[in-house]
């Protein structure tokens, strides 16, 4: 019975891997056909040398870093306070953090345009800085479910109440407690949320397109509509970025386990 269960498990794993990697292999193989009759990296060279690719990718990386900073500033204090002082509010906070999963991004961006257009009381869309700020806040909302759950999971692994009481007994204020005691203890969880946020921002299309910002997502769509091989090369690059973020999450998780094992 155990043998058949093991065979079934391996069979399911192999089928799943084939289902995932065969289309991706075809995608990669087609991206190498830019030169007639031979395999080459011409599509990748043209993409990486494209000034628009460099500009849009750099813009999305900067926006990802800004989004991560905003998410940390919002989520870490909120999750800490809920766990320490307001455990009764946890179900409500979790419900609020799940809303971005059920509210489409297009609804969020149209709400932004409606509330912050040039004729409103706060015309953020009337300037580049204001529009970028709206985009960063929109990205923060989209990444909120992942960042909050990562940080909340990290806080579960430490004794928040004891650490806070010990710090207060030594005269530490709330800012010191958060920045020097709580945050360093949940850094692996914060990094996991940060890598997920980075992957989300790099590939996001709706917010950037409707706010008319030069992000990587709209660039992917424009290239896909006008060129034959470069879109497939860009898709492979986007997959590589996403896998890199997932690999970093696994690396951080293993590092967290290894550092806690001696204790």
Describe this structure in words.
- Helix content is 80%, strand content 0%.
- It has twelve helices and no strands.
- It has helices at 2-31, 42-49, 51-84, 90-102, 105-115, 128-156, 160-169, 174-185, 187-203, 206-210, 216-226, 230-260.
- Helix 6 (128-156) runs antiparallel to helix 9 (187-203) and helix 9 (187-203) runs antiparallel to helix 12.
- The longest helix is centred in the first third of the chain and has 34 residues, at 51-84.
- The two termini are 40 Å apart.
Briefly characterize the structure.
The protein has 263 residues and is mainly α.
Order of helices and strands: HHHHHHHHHHHH
Q: Quickly count the helices.
A: 12
**Radius of gyration, whole Å:** 22 Å
What is the residue-averaged pLDDT? 86
Can you tell me the residue ranges where pLDDT is under 50 for at least 5 consecutive residues?
none
- Per DSSP E runs of 2 or more residues, the count of β-strands stands at 0
N- and C-termini, Cα separation: 40 Å
Report the β-strand fraction as a percent range.
under 5%
Shape type: globular
SS-derived structural category: mainly alpha
Main sheet properties: none
Helicity, as a percent range: over 70%
């Amino acid at each position: 019975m155990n043998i058949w269960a093991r065979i079934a498990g391996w069979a399911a794993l192999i089928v799943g891997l084939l289902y995932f990697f065969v289309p991706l292999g075809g995608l990669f193989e087609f991206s190498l056909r830019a030169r007639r009759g031979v395999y080459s990296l011409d599509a990748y060279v043209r993409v990486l040398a494209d000034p628009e690719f460099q500009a849009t990718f750099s813009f999305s990386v900067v926006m990802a870093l800004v989004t991560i900073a905003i998410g940390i500033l919002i989520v870490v204090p909120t999750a800490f306070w809920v766990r320490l002082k307001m455990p009764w509010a946890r179900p409500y906070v979790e419900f609020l953090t799940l809303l971005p999963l059920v509210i489409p991004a297009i609804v969020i961006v149209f709400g932004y345009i409606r509330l912050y257009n040039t004729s409103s009381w706060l015309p953020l869309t009337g300037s580049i800085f204001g529009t970028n700020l709206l985009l960063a806040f929109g990205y923060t909302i989209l990444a909120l479910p992942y960042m909050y759950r990562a940080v909340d999971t990290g806080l579960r692994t430490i004794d928040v109440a004891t650490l806070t009481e010990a710090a207060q007994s030594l005269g530490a204020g709330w800012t010191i407690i958060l920045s020097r005691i709580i945050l360093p203890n949940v850094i692996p969880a914060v990094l996991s949320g940060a890598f997920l946020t980075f992957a989300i921002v790099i590939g996001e299309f709706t917010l950037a397109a409707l706010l008319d910002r030069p992000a990587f997502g709209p660039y992917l769509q424009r290239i896909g509509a006008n060129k034959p091989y470069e879109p497939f090369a860009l898709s492979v690059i986007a997959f590589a970025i996403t896998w890199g973020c997932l690999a970093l999450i696994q690396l951080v998780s293993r590092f967290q386990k290894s550092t806690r094992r001696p204790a």
